[in-house]
Amino acid sequence: MTSIVTNVGALSALATLRTISGSMQQVQSEVATGARISTAADNAAYWSISTTMTSDKKAISAVADALNLADAMVNVAYEGLNAAVDVLAEFKAKLIAGREPGVDTGKVQKELDQLQDQMMSIATSASFNGQNWLNTNVNDIFDPAQNTTSMVASFSRGASGVSLGTMEHRLAETSLFNSTGGGLLQADPRDPKTLGGIRYEYLDTDRHLVRSTSNYSGSGAPSFVFNFTGPLQFGAGDSITFDVTVDKDNPADGLPNPQDPGLTTSITIDRSTIDTVLGAGANGRVSTYVDYERVLFHALSATGSGAYATTYTDWRHQPIIDRIGIGSNETSGLNGSYIGISNFTSTVGSGGLSNKEQFSSRGQDHTLYFKPFRIFDGVEVSFDFDINRAAPQSYSFDRDYINTTLGKTDGSVDTAVEMQTLLQSMLSADWPDLIIDVPTADTITLETDVNADRLAGAKTSIGFTGISVNIEPIPTLNFMDIDIAVRPDLIETYINYVDVVSERVIDGASTLGALQNRIGLQGDFAESLMDSIDTGIGKLVDADMNEASTRLKALQTQEQLATQALSIANSASQNILQLLQ
Predict the structure, then answer these.
(1) Cβ neighbours, 10 Å, residue 121
(2) CA-CA-CA-CA torsion for 214, 219, 220, 226, nearest 10 degrees?
(3) Are 188 and 477 within 8 A, CB to CB?
(4) Among residues 423, 433, 292, 295, which one has the least CA distance to residue 352?
(5) Which of 53, 101, 189, 190 could form a disulfide with 376 if both were Cys (CB 3.0 to 4.6 A apart)?
(6) Gyration radius of the chain over CA positions
(7) Residue 575 CB: number of other CB atoms within 10 A?
């Protein structure tokens, strides 16, 4: 049916043309912008994600810039430490030259002064963007809350929100000079020195400061000496007889009964003994103290008496003529420590030997000479302790342990009584027979309970071994104070000091090298991450240009056809007019 009121064909063609025009407008936008999603109306979810990720990419770009800044800072500090290592090497060479005989230490010191000034120049010049990691101003450089500098390293968005990742650097690892002390080239204020008396200090023959790794008290086995008088001539019926007793308890110690009488052995020396020890050629004659010592040693050991005979040398390792000693080997298995000769008889003379006895003391005590000390954060003290050569037990303490035990906040042990409390807290549980006392304000005694400890002599001991502090060795001098013109006697000490600080500076440079590597890796990652975000955003919103151009061509063709259809539909009314003419 054809109507002049409603042109159905034109309406249909017009609707088709509108649809094609709308699609064509969208495709033309994709072709023009390269994005299939440009506004929230295109796809709200994808548009929101792409917009957020675009913002995150800008933040990561800012992080990359910050990493470049950090890299520049680390590079400057590293170059400074590297130069400091070279100066220290030259400084050590000058010190070694200064110890040569006949060298004018005053002239060498002038060269050292220049190197000291150069070191300070390096430290003050190694600054970038107002930051200097080699010349610092930190109130407590060993406090992590004060000595930590942070650098932005990453940006991330998670379920809990946006967060920035940082890299941290401790200035204590690289500071050569700090305004309040503690720099790598300054005396370390964390030095705990004698640890309240647990260890002792001394200067060795080269003037190096030595800290003991043990602090021990022990007794020796008992012995007595006599001077040989002779010669002694043994005939067929001659002999020397005596009883030797080892390791009986000392009644003077007040031990409860029963007291052990020790191990007693009867000894006989006759002509056959002389021939066995000295040979038949001796003809029964003991001519020298060396001969007599050999005869006594044989007689004591052959009978299993647990005693011995010996000769002596002086401090120059020269023989002490005619000196002979008799002692206990302390192999009897008894608690006591004793050597005694009794019931001595002889038909040839004594040779100087007679009834004698010697006890060694029972129990053991050890004295610590207390000095106050303080433990800083990051410092740990460890040691082993044992009594009477039992299996040693290991102990350690740090700042937190001191504070908890003594109710302190600064890690200090200020009095001998506080030291007593600290030691008791560690040792008492493992060594219930240990008594720790404070006889004076600056001494602490550790001793065994004599009511429980019956051991005596070399079987007794008490003390500390394996003493160590985790941060040592540390510098105990200031680099800028070295002066061999004023103190030429300390050249060896200075050389040792330079060795210690050189290792610390090298460690600091290694730390910066590791940080440089991490910054480089983090920077590469940031670049890769931005590329990945670009790719991800593109997959969400970018248009497929091949598809878009093909669709645009098709829509242009459809638009032409729709226009022609509309034209045909509109010409239908003209056909009606022709019929009415």
Answers:
(1) 12
(2) 130
(3) no
(4) 292
(5) 190
(6) 47
(7) 9
Return the exposure string of 169-194: e unless at least 16 CB atoms fall within 10 Å of the residue's CB, then b.
Answer: bbbbbbbbbbeeebbbbbbbebbbeb
**Rounded distance between C-alpha atoms, residue 270 and residue 282, angstroms:** 13
Q: Residue 201 corresponds to which tokens in the numbers above?
A: 């200090």
Dig out the tokens for 447 from the structure: 């001793």
- Residue 251: cis peptide before it, omega within 30 degrees of 0: no
Taking phi over 0 as left and psi of -120 to 50 as alpha, with beta for the rest, 470 belongs to alpha
Q: Which residues pair with 165 in a beta bridge?
A: 154
Query: Which pair of structure tokens corresponds to residue 175?
Result: 């500071």
Total count of residues recorded for the chain: 581
Residues of the chain with pLDDT under 70: 1-11, 13, 17, 21-39, 41-43, 153-165, 206-207, 537-549, 551-553, 555-556, 559, 562, 565-566, 569, 572-573, 576-577, 579-581
Which residue in 193, 257, 269, 264 sits closest to 232, CA to CA? 269
What is the pLDDT, as a whole number, of residue 39? Answer: 66
Distances (CA, A) of 13 to 8, 9, 515, 554: 9, 6, 71, 17
**Which two three-digit tokens encode residue 183?**
């720099």
Predicted pLDDT at 427: 97
* pTM (2 d.p.): 0.67
- At residue 530, the 3 state secondary structure works out as helix
C-alpha to C-alpha distance for 206 and 189, rounded to whole angstroms: 24
Amino acid 4: pLDDT: 62
The pLDDT, as a whole number, for residue 125 is 92
pLDDT at 230: 85
- Comparing CA positions, the residue from 263, 353, 355, 343 lying closest to residue 305 is 263
Six-digit token pair at 180?
A: 């309040």
